[in-house]
Design goal:
By secondary structure, the chain is α/β, with parallel strands linked by helices. The chain is built from 15 helices and 12 strands. The chain folds into 2 domains: 3-249, 3-Layer(aba) Sandwich (Aspartate Aminotransferase, domain 2), CATH 3.40.640; 252-383, Aspartate Aminotransferase, domain 1 (Alpha-Beta Complex), CATH 3.90.1150. The chain has a 7-stranded mixed β-sheet, sandwiched between helices. β5 (173-177), α8 and β6 form a beta-alpha-beta unit. The chain is globular. 44% of the residues are buried. The structure holds pyridoxal-5'-phosphate.
């Protein structure tokens, strides 16, 4: 065999005794015979055909996620928004209606309202906690109900069990975006959700390495979604699937540490005179504290707080931070801070922002895995009234 040919064909059996999973970077698969190829294509034999359809590395991630969410099956997708796109393309038809919780990820609302809106799908947005409004706005055409709980950055809570009942009575699919809590702290399927969605590049990866998405639920639903994925091509990359499979191995350990660290920072912020208000599910006076206790097993490390400052003072505070990263992402080992009014919510008019509570002095911090003392030290120096550039009002 010529070396060029050997370089192309040499066997990769050395991977077999690898302890950690190999990355299944392959686009296609070899068939043992022409007959097998024919059977795989006709569907009489299950097996890999092409990585837009299935990939062993992606299947490993799907298997692990389904187990964690306590459901039959899962589907890896290119991104969280790709997962929402599949949901709409698979389950909605012209004339259908979708109920969305207000305060969910802005791009999700944009996708359903404006993009799917082009194809005759209508939406209604409802405050998560207003249960009567959910029933009132159900129509015979309502096919899907989408919530996030808690919402980001204002930590509103949706009652999963009651919304699942309302959706089921009306034959609508109940979809829960579980990106913020992950199955470690909340398993929506147990409360009656039909489908759980993840922006998997957040806590599931946990180290800011990739953009990815996932859906989990009953086999019949995942099968339909997978058929749509094969045709639309929003498949997960095998490399990202490997990152995520390894991420899931440490998910519980990371979430518990995120929670432990964020509780300390929450308590510190609550007692600081330069802080006007702290918004977190740790708050015993949260309007849905009992619901939080009954449906969450833990708290997401996102804390929102309002400074005693105007917008300029709030932005100057962010610029004085050293350790804490100025980054609009969430779910990372590194603590990150963002100013929603000028970033994630900048497209909303000022009156609407203020109405929803996205004030000019609101900040959102997502606590990472550093020693909390170091995060507190950074916050403290930037909040200090003796800081040469400080304009914060203390007390
Ligand atoms: C980031 C995010 C999304 C969008 O996911 P992508 O992976 O960025 O496409 C959806 N929902 C929530 C809650 C998110 O935080």
């Amino acid at each position: 065999m010529k070396y060029v040919t050997e370089a192309v064909h040499a066997s990769k059996t050395y991977l077999e005794d690898m302890h950690s999973e190999a990355i299944a970077m392959t686009s296609a698969y070899d068939f043992a015979s022409a007959e097998e190829a024919a059977q795989r294509f006709s569907g009489t034999q299950t097996g890999n055909v092409y990585s837009r359809f299935t990939n062993p590395g992606v299947e490993l991630f799907e298997h692990r996620l389904a187990a964690l969410e306590g459901t039959e099956a899962a589907l890896g997708v290119a991104s969280g928004m790709g997962a929402y796109l599949l949901l709409g393309l698979t389950f909605l038809r012209q004339g259908d209606h979708v109920l969305l919780a207000s305060g969910i990820f802005g791009t999700t609302t944009h996708l359903f309202k404006n993009i799917f809106g082009q194809f005759g799908i209508t939406t209604t947005t409802i405050a998560a906690s207003d249960l009567n409004a959910w029933s009132d706005h159900m129509t015979p055409h309502t096919r899907m109900v989408i919530v996030e709980t808690p919402t980001n950055p204002l930590m509103e809570i949706a009652n999963l069990r009651q919304l699942a009942d309302i959706a089921r009575k009306n034959n609508a699919l109940f979809v829960v975006d579980n990106t913020l809590l992950t199955p470690v702290f909340q398993r929506p399927i147990e409360f009656g959700a039909d489908i759980v969605l993840h922006s998997a590049g957040k806590f599931l990866d946990g180290q800011g390495r990739c953009v990815a998405g996932a859906l989990a639920g009953r086999q019949e639903h995942i099968d339909r979604l997978r058929l749509c994925l094969r045709t639309t091509g929003v498949n997960m990359s095998p490399f990202n699937a490997w990152i995520l499979s390894k991420g899931l191995e440490t998910l519980k350990a990371r979430m518990l540490l995120h929670e432990h660290n964020s509780l300390q920072i929450y308590q510190w912020l609550k007692n600081h005179p330069a802080v006007e208000q702290v918004i977190s599910t740790f708050d015993e006076n949260h309007p849905d504290a009992s619901l939080i206790a009954s449906q969450q097993k833990g708290h997401c490390p996102i804390i929102s707080f309002r400074l005693n400052a105007d917008q300029a003072g709030t932005l100057a505070f962010i610029d004085r931070l050293g350790l804490i990263k100025r980054c609009t992402n969430i779910g990372d080992a590194q603590t990150m801070i963002t100013h929603p009014a000028t970033t994630t919510h900048c497209r909303y008019p000022a009156e609407e922002r203020n109405l929803f509570g996205i004030s000019d002095n609101l900040l959102r911090i997502c606590i990472g895995l550093e020693e909390p003392e170091d995060v507190i030290e950074d916050l403290a120096q930037a909040m200090s009234p003796t800081h040469p550039q400080s304009t914060l009002r203390v007390g």
